[in-house]
Design a protein that fits this description.
This protein has 196 residues and is of the alpha/beta class. The protein is built from nine helices and five strands. Helix content is 56%, strand content 12%. The protein has a five-stranded parallel beta sheet with strand order 2-3-1-4-5. α2 crosses α3 and α4 runs parallel beside α5. The longest helix has 15 residues. The chain is globular, with a radius of gyration of 16 Å. The chain starts with 8 loop residues before the first strand and ends with a helix.
Length: 196
């Protein structure tokens, strides 16, 4: 089980803001474990379980998985993280204020907390990135209509969690309109201070 003295990072930002790419760069330098909720959800779908089928129906419409299901999946994940892990990057979780509160409680029960790095990119940059990704990866949710819906859900439901972490004094905004290397340089300055 994940223990105390860890660096836990919440990598926030709209779809297409660069969370996956930047997570890889953080993992490479800081040795954190990357928890992509998208990967966790896709694995559940691939398992063919009843929960996986329910999640697939929700995601294929561009909707968010309900809080209770996400919180349970994340708690199961945290319980399986090795004790010698240096920390976790939460990529795609929390996505609602309720999930943020639940994560705070989960981490506090392990004598830990987390800092939010919020990736900001303009909508036209995001649209270009995701349309291009859809053309190369074949991901069904990377089409214009679904992207617009995902961005609306993000702005209405997920973006407010930044206020939650601002109030906790555990919030940093990162400009991700630029290339991944320059974006990571901003993150590196912050993490080098947090992770001494």
């Amino acid at each position: 089980m994940l223990g105390t003295g860890k660096l836990n990072i919440i990598l926030g930002g709209a779809p297409g803001s660069g969370k996956g790419t930047l997570s890889d760069l953080i993992v490479k330098k800081y040795g954190l474990q990357h928890l992509s909720t998208g990967d966790v959800l896709r694995a559940e779908i691939a398992s063919g379980s009843e929960l996986g089928r329910e999640i697939n129906d929700i995601i294929s419409l561009g909707n968010l998985v309900p809080d209770a299901q996400m919180i349970k999946l994340l708690e199961n994940y945290l319980n399986g993280v090795p004790a010698d892990c240096r920390g976790v990057i939460f990529d795609g979780f929390p996505r609602t204020v309720e999930q943020a509160r639940a994560l705070t409680i989960m981490l506090a029960s392990r004598q830990m907390d987390a800092y939010m790095l919020d990736l900001f990119a303009e909508e036209d940059v995001i649209m270009t990135r995701l349309i291009r990704r859809g053309q190369t990866s074949g991901r069904a949710d990377d089409n214009y209509e679904t992207i617009k819906k995902r961005l609306k859900i993000y702005n209405d439901t997920t973006k407010p969690i930044s206020d939650y972490y601002v109030k906790l004094h555990k919030y940093f905004m990162i400009n991700s309109n630029i290339n991944p290397e320059c974006t990571f340089a901003q993150i590196d300055v912050i993490l080098s201070q947090l992770y001494k």
